[in-house]
Amino acid sequence: MLHLSGDLGTGKTTLVRGLLRALGITGAVKSPTYTWVEPYTLSRLDLYHFDFYRFADRTEWLSAGLREYFRPDAFCIVEWPEKVGSLLPPPDLLIALQYEGETRRASIESRSPAGYAWLSSLPRSL
Prior knowledge:
alpha/beta, 6 strands, 20% helix
């Protein structure tokens, strides 16, 4: 699981679009701000892109029935995970985006052995 944090406009959805394009998704990549989740199928992998920006209260996650998506055979990318807090399973990676003048900065933190392995496989130039 990947959590994306950052203020509005820092590029969370743009980052997800880039990841999905790199994984071979060629169709429309919509922001799930109003639908909460956009599903994608990559070969045998189910990938779900969530956006919890509109949640006013973390209990909305429980009543929305979204827990069923967070299973071992699926990969979930979550924007605004802080809106749900500890109700979400912990991420493998946390990417925090922030403004830095006219540009943006990303910090990436592994939170599990799988996240560490993935992060370690990235080129150092990133």
